[in-house]
Amino acid sequence: MFNPPPAPKTPLGYRRLLAPNAGVRVSPLCLGGMSLGSKWADFTGKITKEAAFELLDAFVEAGGNFIDTANLYHFGESEEWIGEWMEQRGNRDRLVIATKYSGFNDGEQKDVNSMGNAGKSMHLGVRESLKRLRTSYIDVFYVHFWDYSTPVDEIMRGLHRHVLSGEILYPAVSDTPAWIVVQANAFARQHGYSPFVLYQGLWNVSVRDVEREVLPMLRKEGMGFAPWGVIGQGKFMSKQQLEERKASNEPIRGGEQSEKDVRVSEVLAEIGDELGASVTAVALAWAFRKMPYVFPIIGGRKVEHLKDNIKSLEITLTDAHVAKLEEVNPFDFGFPYDFFGRDPHLMGETTNRVMKASDPIQWVQDVRSIEAQRQ
């Protein structure tokens, strides 16, 4: 008789489909590898290999299986450390490993053809990442960023060749305009190639630009979303956390808090006090509340930070909480959305104004009202 598996130790162990068009299952939080290495210490902070392995162990012990890195991070050292850790633990096939090309594939040598999106850069990227990760395949392989020069068909043909070879399983794309992703996926489908199934980009309560074009595109394309910077790149902090940071002289990644960061942090702290959660846990809960198939990338160098982030999976924000957060920094969707409204079927909004052809008089009145406001 079949016995169901035991309940996971934490909510991190509950697997979710990566995307509507991808059957692989991953943990709801993705552990980022940007801080795992020693060559970018001035940028990401210092961490030893032993401490990195401890963090990776804690992530897996809590139920995590989704890990993100890139060939660019610490000039390849992040991949090397993760590869060595997987080899020592013998857990490669139980993990979903994401990495990226477009950055330098040759460490710090920086040859012009070892970067960008071209086929040669991709070939070198796959080859070198496989070596550093000590594996025969990459689960999720990203185009790291758009280079404005490589043709879309060259990228999609190259990715599909690696899919057919078994070296990568799921093509993905990061930090790229939505219209290019749509063009790439259309080309892939027309030719029987593998389309992108996952997108990675900057998104948090303060920086919501992806909501204009990217998030609607992801829903239409059946793609998942792995946002980075959800906790404000270290800038979302309570007053106590900020005082502790200043007392320790520990630098804030990305610079000091702006006035907007301070205001957002205050509201995050207010909601956190109500729910018994930290500022960062509330910031992550906001992302889960807003978007399906979302897998925030969490960084950090300490196990206690990881445990705090996992608490975001135990709280649920109400509509009032979300509204309170977003009122701090209202987002301007701009034209044409402020003219014809936004699609409520895509964004899940019930209060959104949408022009209705069945009510032409109201339609004209709305248009005139908007035009009058612009005068």
TrEMBL record:
Alphabetical keyword list: NADP
Keyword NADP: yes
Top-level lineage group: Eukaryota
Protein name: NADP-dependent oxidoreductase domain-containing protein
Family: Belongs to the aldo/keto reductase family. Aldo/keto reductase 2 subfamily.
Domain NADP-dependent oxidoreductase: from-to ranges: 28-329
Organism of this sequence: Filobasidium floriforme
Record InterPro entries: AKR_Detox_Biosynth (IPR050523), NAD(P)_OxRdtase_dom_sf (IPR036812), NADP_OxRdtase_dom (IPR023210)
